[in-house]
Amino acid sequence: MTVQSDALLTLDHLLDTVQEPNGREVIDPATGATVGRTRVGTPQDINAAVAAAKQAQPNWAARSHAERSDLLNQAADAVEASAEALAELLSREQGKPLNGPNARFEVGACAAWLRANAGFELEPEVVVDDESGRAELHYKPVGVVGAVGPWNWPMMISIWQLAPALRMGNTVVLKPSEYTPLSVQALVHVLNQVLPADVLHVVPGDGEVGAALISHAQVDKIMFTGSTKTGQAIMRTAADTLARLTLELGGNDAGIVLDDADPQAIAEELFWGAFINTGQTCAAMKRLYVPEGLYDQVCEALVEVAENAPMGVGLDEKNVLGPLQNKQQYDIVARLVQAAKDGGARILTGGDPDESQAGYFYPTTLVADIDNDNPLVAEEQFGPALPIIKYTELDQAIEWANALDVGLGSSVWGNDVDLCRKVAARLEAGTTWINKHGAVDPRIPFGGVKNSGFGLEFGLEGLKHVSVPHVISW
């Protein structure tokens, strides 16, 4: 099968394809302008999509791994062919700029994750092979995967969910965030130029639609990326059907700078570790611990980077930071920065939004001299505000980093890699990066601990988590 001739799609074509003329209005968070109108699904639509996916799944699973991988590679070709239109729609709907680690980056990651999953080879594992006999561990499809995605990386996280699921022979029903339904519907339209009918469905809608998906008796696996509170509700619901779960939930990632770090050398990576996607990333660095001896230098170096990272409307090519995606998130960031001010913290840059401008823009904000128990440190801000906390003893910084009930990511920064590794081993997180933060890779398993969820995505382990184990022993 080859990609159809209409694979190169324009933004207007994409919008015409996914819009519902009488649907709900979707607003550009940077300008307040209308992006388009989305279809609003119903629980009945979920029933129809799950039924169709259930019927299509055996034939899809019957294809060889090589056949499914070939189709994923063709799907990646289709994404790349329409990459600019997808990026423009994403920028308008989500708010993120085209450039920097943003819209074009996200669409490129969609193609990369499709290709990576197509390239993985999950062979049966021999667990016993001796005079007593032989036992092999095989992995089979789960069935129908129900995937519920967020608004911060709507296309990329949808691919994180659907690519391994399809690779292993499952069919998928996606429910995108109410804030970013058009971009996910557009992505599915592009993928479905290549994939067989009914293998992949998308049903936009509100919480009622999401509830219908996660409670559906014929959904065999639920994948969710979002808040801890919603993840807990999903887990309670899944108890009724015993659907398998992968939950990637909230985080409040800590970074620890060590005494031997070079502030100027690490400033750029520190900044983007915290402010990628304008801070709206689950595994972004949300609090930074810096030793007293380097504190002023690190603060100064971060301010320099921040003041040279332009923020504005995403379609303007010069911008690399955008608005908060919605008013609710804007209000959370504003409340937490105000809490820092009220607690006597020092604002290094930002912290004073221009309320007269259109869009949910909150300025890039760095906060110094802040107590570790201030709400801006203790709660996940999920936006462009980074608290920088001074420490005197490394053990104290590690204790503070581990004190919260979440553990998605963390990072350690220094020149002595052996020392960095020793500190990393003491941190309670699903991933600890050294001299970088949030650098996900489709080959490297990713997931959280504590209230940041459970289950792994990416790599061979990610394939196993969208499969059911089957032991064959003789």
UniProtKB/TrEMBL annotation:
<dbReference type="InterPro" id="IPR016163">
    <property type="entry name" value="Ald_DH_C"/>
</dbReference>
<dbReference type="InterPro" id="IPR044086">
    <property type="entry name" value="LUC3-like"/>
</dbReference>
<dbReference type="InterPro" id="IPR015590">
    <property type="entry name" value="Aldehyde_DH_dom"/>
</dbReference>
<dbReference type="InterPro" id="IPR016160">
    <property type="entry name" value="Ald_DH_CS_CYS"/>
</dbReference>
<dbReference type="Pfam" id="PF00171">
    <property type="entry name" value="Aldedh"/>
</dbReference>
<feature type="domain" description="Aldehyde dehydrogenase">
    <location>
        <begin position="24"/>
        <end position="467"/>
    </location>
</feature>
<dbReference type="InterPro" id="IPR016161">
    <property type="entry name" value="Ald_DH/histidinol_DH"/>
</dbReference>
<dbReference type="GO" id="GO:0016620">
    <property type="term" value="F:oxidoreductase activity, acting on the aldehyde or oxo group of donors, NAD or NADP as acceptor"/>
</dbReference>
<protein>
    <submittedName>
        <fullName>Acyl-CoA reductase-like NAD-dependent aldehyde dehydrogenase</fullName>
    </submittedName>
</protein>
<keyword id="KW-0560">Oxidoreductase</keyword>
<feature type="active site">
    <location>
        <position position="248"/>
    </location>
</feature>
<dbReference type="InterPro" id="IPR029510">
    <property type="entry name" value="Ald_DH_CS_GLU"/>
</dbReference>
<dbReference type="InterPro" id="IPR016162">
    <property type="entry name" value="Ald_DH_N"/>
</dbReference>
<comment type="similarity">
    <text>Belongs to the aldehyde dehydrogenase family.</text>
</comment>
